[in-house]
Structures are given as C-alpha cells and as structure tokens.
Amino acid sequence: MAAKRIAILVDDLYEDLELWYPYYRLLEAGHQVDLIGSERDRAYTSKHHYPAKAVKSIAEVRPEDYDGVVIPGGYAPDRMRRDERMVRFVRQIHDQGKLVAAICHAGWMLVSADVLRGRRATSVRAIRDDMRNAGCEWVDEPVVVDGNLVTSRTPDDLPAYMKAILAKLGEA
Amino acid sequence: MAAKRIAILVDDLYEDLELWYPYYRLLEAGHQVDLIGSERDRAYTSKHHYPAKAVKSIAEVRPEDYDGVVIPGGYAPDRMRRDERMVRFVRQIHDQGKLVAAICHAGWMLVSADVLRGRRATSVRAIRDDMRNAGCEWVDEPVVVDGNLVTSRTPDDLPAYMKAILAKLGEA
Amino acid sequence: MAAKRIAILVDDLYEDLELWYPYYRLLEAGHQVDLIGSERDRAYTSKHHYPAKAVKSIAEVRPEDYDGVVIPGGYAPDRMRRDERMVRFVRQIHDQGKLVAAICHAGWMLVSADVLRGRRATSVRAIRDDMRNAGCEWVDEPVVVDGNLVTSRTPDDLPAYMKAILAKLGEA
Amino acid sequence: MAAKRIAILVDDLYEDLELWYPYYRLLEAGHQVDLIGSERDRAYTSKHHYPAKAVKSIAEVRPEDYDGVVIPGGYAPDRMRRDERMVRFVRQIHDQGKLVAAICHAGWMLVSADVLRGRRATSVRAIRDDMRNAGCEWVDEPVVVDGNLVTSRTPDDLPAYMKAILAKLGEA
Amino acid sequence: MAAKRIAILVDDLYEDLELWYPYYRLLEAGHQVDLIGSERDRAYTSKHHYPAKAVKSIAEVRPEDYDGVVIPGGYAPDRMRRDERMVRFVRQIHDQGKLVAAICHAGWMLVSADVLRGRRATSVRAIRDDMRNAGCEWVDEPVVVDGNLVTSRTPDDLPAYMKAILAKLGEA
Amino acid sequence: MAAKRIAILVDDLYEDLELWYPYYRLLEAGHQVDLIGSERDRAYTSKHHYPAKAVKSIAEVRPEDYDGVVIPGGYAPDRMRRDERMVRFVRQIHDQGKLVAAICHAGWMLVSADVLRGRRATSVRAIRDDMRNAGCEWVDEPVVVDGNLVTSRTPDDLPAYMKAILAKLGEA
Predict the structure, then answer these.
(1) Would you say E172 and E148 are in contact if contact means Cβ atoms under 8 Å apart?
(2) Which residues of A are catalytic?
(3) Which long-range contacts does E119-125 make (Cβ < 8 Å, 24+ apart)?
(4) Between A20, A159, A160, which is nearest E17 by CB?
(5) Active site residue: B31, B48, B49, B105, which one?
C-alpha cells in the first residue's frame, strides 16, 4: 500500500482523542499527516487543553496536495465552519472524490460544506437534526461508509472509524 | 402591564450574560422568571463556571404555566436539544403562540423544535447553515422579530434583544 | 430623556453580573457607557474569568466628561482603591453632585473616596463595619438612595439597583 | 521557653504562605497549633487551591484554651468576618491580653473585632483606609508590635512577622 | 490471530495519549482491554483532566487472567508504584513471560517491579538515571524490544510502540 | 553566627511549601537566599500555580558562591534533572563538602548527581526504590542527617528539616 497524504483540521476545543487517535494511527499505518489550522504554528488546545500545533495554515494548502481530510469533533467544528476557507477545503476534497472523514460534532463541517445531500451518515446524537436538515439519511451506527464519506458518532467508535478510514485509503 | 410568567432554559456551558441579562431584566420589568433544567435544584455552570440553579425540572413544568420561553446560547443548547422534553416544551410554547426568544447558539433549539420553516430569524454566524437548512430566512441583524419569534446574534445584541422581548410581552 | 455618559470602573476579579448587567442595561436605556481601567485596552477578567476590555484608562478621563460612575463589586474594588487616580475620580464625580453607584464590595471605593460621612447606604454584609467606620448609617435594604449616592448589596439586588440608577439619571 | 497553644484561623481564599509559614514555624519552635474554621474537618482551599483542613470548628473552641491567635490574609478574612463567632473569638483573645497577630488583609478581622482604637498597626496598603477608620495609627513598616498586637503587610514580611510573634510568645 | 486479554494500569495524572492510544489501538486490533486502578469504578483523571474509569480494581485481578500489561506515563506511575499490589502485578506478568510494555515515566514501574536487570530498555530522558540504576542498558531509541519487554520514550513514539506491542502479541 | 549564602533550586511544579518554607525560614535566620532556575527572571509556578521568580539562572552561578543548596520537591526535580547544569551544580556543592538538602521528590536530584552511594537518607516513599538503587540506605524518618546531606520526606517534616538545616549551617 502506498503512503497517502492526509489533512487533519484543528481548532480550539477539539475533542482530544478524536484528533490524536487518527493522527497517530495514520502515522502508524505509514501515511503522512498534516495538522491544519486557521493559523500556522499556532498551538490550538483541546476541550481538556491538550495542545496541538498546526504545521500549516488553511491559507497555504491546496486540496490537490492531499488524499483525504479527517475532521475531529468537540466544539472545534463550530469554530472551523466560520472560516470559509476551511469549509471550501472540505468541499473540494469531497468533490475530488477523496476521503472525507468526520466524527461526532465534525458533522457540522459536512453540513456547511454541503456534501450530505442524498448520503447516508451518522454523528453525535446532538446534531442529528442538523445532519438530516442538510439532506442525509441519518443512522445510529458506529461507523457509516458511503462512497468517500466516512462518519462516526463518539470516541468509543474510534476503532471502527479508523478501520474504515484505513480500508478506504487502502482501496484508493 | 400585567406580569408575565417566563421560563428560561438552562444547561451546562450556557453563555453567562445571555442567561443572566434576560433573567434580571425580566425581573426588573416585574415579570416572574423560572430557571428550568433537566434536573431540579441542580446548579448548572456557565462557560465561565458561573452557577445557575434550576428551580424546576423540565419534567414538572407545563407549557400552559408560562407566557413565553427564553433560551440562552453558549454550548448549553447543544446539550438541551438531546432532551426530547426540552425540545417539546419549546415547540408547545411556540404552537400556543407565545413568546419564543433565542440568542446566539440557542437557534439550535429552534432547529430541533422545528419552528423555523418560513420564518425570518438570526443567530450567531456559526450556525447560520443549520438555521437555513431548518427552513428560515436567515438575516444578519441585531434582533429579528417574526410573530412570536424573537432572535438575536451575540451578547452585544442583548439590549436590542431585551427591548424586543419586553415589547412583545407588553403587547400580548 | 437625554442620553447620559456613564463611567463603569473595572479591574480584575470584578463580579461578573455587577459589571455586565449595569453595562447592557444602561445601553438598553440609551445611555453611553465607557469601561475604564488602570490601563487602556487591557482585558480585565472577572471572578469567573469573563473578559472585559477597558476602552479608556483612568489617566485619560476627566470627571467633567461623565454624568455618573457605576462601580461593580467582587474583589475588583480591593484593587481599584490602591490606585489614587481611581479613588480621586470617584470623589470628584461625587463632589460634582453626579451619580455615584456602588454594589456589594464596591462600597470600599466609597470608603476610600471618603464620601460616606453622614450618608445612608448599604453594601454586602462583609464590609458593613468598614462602611460604618467610614461614617455612614448602614442599612440592610436592597437599594438605598441618598442624594446622588445609590448603593446595593448583592447580584440579586440588581433589578432594584438599576431601577434606582435609571430613575436618578432620568431626574437629573 | 514553655510551649504555647496557638489558634490559626482559616477560611477559603486564605493566602497560602501567610497561613503555612506561621503554621510550620510555630511547630518548629515547639508550640502547639490548631487550624480553626467555621466547620470542623472541612478542607478549606487557599487562593491557589492549597488545601488546609480545620481540626476544630469555631463553635467548639474557647479563648481560654489558647495563648494567642494568628490570622492569615488573602480574601479569607473577608469571609471570616461574616461569622460573628470568629470575630468574637478574636476580640476575646485580645481582651484577655493574649497575642493577636494579623498580616495583609487579616487587618479586616481586627477592624470587625474593634481592637484597633488608639493602636499602632500596619496591613496591606489596600485596606489602609479601613484600618485608619477603625481608629488605628497606620504605618508602612514590615512589622508593628503594639502591646499584644502584631501586624505585618505582605508575604515578604513573614520573616520579620514571625520573629516578632515568637519574641512575644517567649516573653509572655 | 487470537484475541488477547490486556491490562492497562491507570492512576491520576496519567499522560492522556499514552493511555488512550494503546487502549483504542488494542481494541481496533481485536483484543480485550481492561483499565485497572487501585479502586474499581473510580474515574481517574489525566494530566489534562481527561477521565478514565477503572473497570476493575487491582485487588480483584490475577496475572493469570491477562496476556500482558501496558503502563502509561505521565506522573501516574509515581502514584502506582506506592501500591505494592500494582508493582507485584507487573512483576508477576513479567515472570510469567508475558508482555510488559512501558512508555515515558512508566519506566518507574519497571524499576519498582525490579524487572530491568540485564535488560535493554528506554524511557523519557528524565528518568534515565533511575532506569540505569535499576540495572538496564538504557538507549535512546523510539522503541526497544527485549524479550517480553517493550519500552518507548514519549507520545511521539506511540506509532512505533504500538507496532511493536501488536507484533509481540501476534507472535505469542 | 555568620550569614550564609544559600541556593534554592526552582522549576515548574515545585511543591509550594517545600520551596517557600525554607526560603523565608533561611531569611528569618539571617541568611542570604537566591532562587535559581534554568532561566533568569522567569516566574516558575508551583503545583498549585504559586509563582516563584528565579533571580539567577543556573548558567551564571558558581558553586563557589554558595554555602549550600536546598532543593524542593513536587515534580520540579523531574524537570531539573534533565538539565545537566543543575545536576552538576548539586554535585559540586556536595563535593565541596557544603550543605545539600533535599525533601520529598528532590531525592531524584541526589540520584542524578550521584551523591547517595554509601549514605543514609530518606525521601517521599514513592521514590524509595530509585534512592536505594542509587546506593543509599533508605530509612523512614522525618529527617536524616548524614554529613553534609540533609533529607526529609514530606511537607509535614518541614519543621524538623529546617531545624537540621539551620543546625548544619550554624556548625559550619
């Protein structure tokens, strides 16, 4: 399997494990991972104040440079979606048919990127109505794979989530 | 003007001023106000850990007992909307034609109560897409009054928000 | 009623609602409000770490430019009174016969400005002895108006406090 | 030198070192020390959340059982002085001619116990006006000894403060 | 590959990712994992206050019931090693020839279990001297495998660490 | 008794009282004390975030300039021992036959400075094994004096610890 280049989006209040488990897991599998924030070299902090430094800013990356994007939950997506560049990046990755993975509240980024119409997906229960209103068939399952879209509900789904993501990267 | 009975919903992570400014302001105007949470007598804490004790639980209140509901923002609405009883309470107050006021992220409760179809409303910018997907015409104004629905954007809109709420209660 | 120009003093450890309720309430009533600290543009934080940015420093304001001063409680007054300029500002506003309003521990500023001799006033119970020693008749009432001096006890008195302040501004 | 029995008063928000330096120093000198709070066995926390467990409640101690009282600063004295039993205990120790030591904001307890009339004393600068209004000659010195009254200004005065306290206990 | 039963030890101040990455990674690989603390059902908190509930207490587990033990770093090992039952559990797992994995400050548990004599191992740099004094050849490498002993240095070694652990479990 | 020059080492996470009690106690006894950190003028914070500013950096001090070194516990020693200059400073003070005092987890610095072989010493129970592996006879006593080496276990030993330190400075 060839190494892939994966973008992980970051902002303050990200859910600790929903960022770091995918981060280290992708590295363990041999992929290349970049943490991308609104500002380069800024140390964003998780819901529990665990620091995560963005190695690149959203202003300097191009969707062409990545094979997929992985979005953590927590309340970080509530912040990310206010940045049009972040939203556009996700939409473009999606439109290029590459992996778009979102767990928990990260579904809000799928809503704002408008990539849910006619899709099957899941998320944390709290944003179910937002997901449905954005046009998806919302189901209550540990992980849902619909084409290039991989979604999960909570940290406890991380093993199933990463298995699906790695399978998707392997098949690409 | 006759005193009205107003319900203010509360949960952890409420935005401090979006709860307390309406609370004291309604009292100052001579109205009766109840803080209502999922549990009675529990001290919920704001984003900045300011305590707010619920005097009643959502299980023991009836929409008939109130003349309106005021919903604070912060991330409290992300929690409230997981409680079907909270959502139903807002919908019933709305369906009875009484005041429903929501500021900032409180718009999520309007989404889940499904009271936005065909309405004009505002909210914090971050949830604009969720508001639109729920069927409203979203505008960027300090306060929007559409029938019994009063919505605002952020703490800085509190003066305009409360003026509109008090006017609405006075006209009823 | 003509709009008045009101100074609200701020320092770290201010009581959250005793600053922000008067702030937004005065704006709602159509007055102009300036947050004034020992340093301009510094973000002071409340007892619960709610930020409040001073738009002007005490060094650059003149009592002539204001129609009154409102002082929040918390432990901010314990800090403010160490700054002679803050104390002098309150005394001068007072000597010009303009509104001086103090709630809770803000009474300490009245003590240091020496404006309590022969007056009737209240405060949080804890500083009652300091108030009496400064020469006032201390009473346990929600709000006490004695000439241009308006005093209250705790956040729960905010509705009565602001009613009295607004009445005072309206009569001026 | 005979061992003395010393009461140290405690409440939340005590200044860490102003409690613990006297505590260990008195023990090192061979004296017996009791931490006394409004509730027995409660763990009070300092300004920095350092825990201090009260071994006795103010309800169960008698001034006759102690040779002196030492009062820490921080904002603990603002709480202690609301408890009439605490204030009375200090006044009685004083009236029995025994050691009363107060540092920093602990001067507030001397104000409320009304033991400052005609005395020479110091305190943190912030409460100078309250001390003066209570009738003392306030001076800006590291430690002031006036009969059985020992007062200091801030943590940096602790060495001079404890030297004076120990000398006072030794001469008794 | 058959599923293994793995014990992960937990105590307050554990390094967040050094516990949770192995936890979810082992689950993803199909193994069974138990979090074991000094008390059952207690929620221990990480250096950043991320909660981790122990499903079993050290008092109720037997080394015979597990195929290996994984020990997180942070300052949790400084607490674990005070509990003789925790130390004995690690020594017995080791003496039964099963996997013993330790990252960062978890080396302290290997020191106290006295399983380092004559072995090759690594750890966070800070405890290098303690490791050497306990008899091991200390090297500065991302992961060191010496028989049933797997050691790593810091969170950034997690991918290499887990690869080695999974390889070891697969070969058993 | 002549005044001595004492170095107190500091780093983040120092145990509050294990630094400040010796600090003020040595000053009270008439000695000169310098707080020394890896960086000059940096404010290190204790386990409870009490600030302590280093007046000198380890880079600019010479063992010849001091009559002894006192090392606080907490997790600060886990940081100090990573700095070879800190470790060397302690070893040189020791080799010059001057006072070396360590309480609680400060024993780690004695381990890394390799000054424990053949000595009698104590420490917090948690690091007993590291102390023994470094060659000392570890005993469970409030304070242990072995030549120029003075060691104690926890904050509650501070009175005995300082008595022994002061006696040692007096006899030199």
Answers:
(1) no
(2) 105
(3) E119/E146, E119/E147, E119/E149, E120/E144, E120/E146, E121/E146, E121/E149, E121/E151, E122/E151, E122/E152, E122/E153, E123/E151, E123/E153, E124/E73, E124/E153, E124/E154, E125/E153, E125/F82
(4) A20
(5) B105
Which tokens hold the place of B2? 């006759």
**Tokens representing residue C108 in the block:** 């300490």
Rounded Cα distance, E22 and E104, in Å: 13
Cα separation, C124 vs C107, in Å, equals 8
Give the domain CATH number at A106. Answer: 3.40.50.880
Chain D residues close to C82, C-beta within 8 Å? 125-126
For residues C75 and B102, give the distance between their C-alpha atoms in angstroms, rounded to a whole number.
33
DSSP D20: H
Considering only CB atoms, which chain F residues are within 8 Å of D158?
A: 24, 28
d(CA A117, CA D60): 71
Q: Name the residue with tokens 């009766």.
A: B32
pLDDT band at residue F4 using 50, 70 and 90 as cut-offs = very high
Measure the N-to-C terminal CA separation of chain B; round to a whole number of Å.
9
Measured from the Cβ of residue E45, the count of other Cβ atoms closer than 10 Å reads 16
Which amino acid appears at position C111 of this protein? Answer: V
Q: Could you tell me whether strands D149-152 and C5-9 are parallel, antiparallel, or unpaired per DSSP bridges?
A: unpaired
Residue B18 near residue B45 (C-beta atoms within 8 A): no
Name the active-site residue from F31, F49, F94, F105.
Answer: F105
Q: What is the CA radius of gyration of chain F?
A: 14
Residue pLDDT, tens place only, F56-96: 999 999 999 999 999 999 999 999 999 999 999 999 999 99
Whether the per-residue pLDDT at E171 is higher than 90: the answer is no
Secondary structure element (H or E) that encloses residue E56, with its range: strand E56-57
- The domain total for chain C is 1
Torsion angles phi and psi, residue E95, rounded to 5: -70, -20
From the CA of E83, how many Å to the nearest CA of chain F?
A: 9
Task: Report the C-alpha gap between C46 and C51 in whole angstroms.
Answer: 6
Q: Show residues of chain C in contact with B23, CB under 8 Å.
A: none
The pLDDT of residue E6 is 98
Cross-chain Cβ contact D82/C108 below 8 Å? no
Respond yes or no: is residue B105 known to be catalytic.
Answer: yes
Token pair in block for residue E34: 């138990």
Cβ distance E103 to E76 under 8 Å? no
**DSSP helix/strand/coil, E81:** coil
| DSSP-derived 3-state class of residue E151 | strand
| CA atoms of F119 and F135, how far apart (whole Å) | 7
Question: DSSP letters of F20-32?
Answer: HHHHHHHHHTT-E
User: Can you tell me which residue has the tokens 């909270």?
Assistant: B86
Res. A172 pLDDT band, cuts 50 70 90: low
Structural domain harbouring B18? 5-171
Please say whether the beta carbons of E123 and E116 come within 8 A: no
The residue among F103, F92, F90 whose CA lies nearest residue F165 is: F103
Spatial separation of the C-alpha atoms in residues B16 and B21, rounded to whole Å:
8
| Four-residue CA torsion sign, E129, E135, E139, E145 | negative
The DSSP result for C14-46, as a single string, is: B-HHHHHHHHHHHHHTT-EEEEEESSTT-EEEB
Q: Which pLDDT value is given to residue B2?
A: 84
Q: Cα A27 to chain center, whole Å?
A: 16
Letter for the amino acid at E21? Y
- Strand ranges inside chain A, DSSP E: 5-9, 32-37, 43-45, 51-53, 56-57, 68-71, 99-103, 120-121, 137-138, 143-146, 149-152
What crossing angle do the helices spanning D158-171 and D16-28 adopt, rounded to 10°? 40
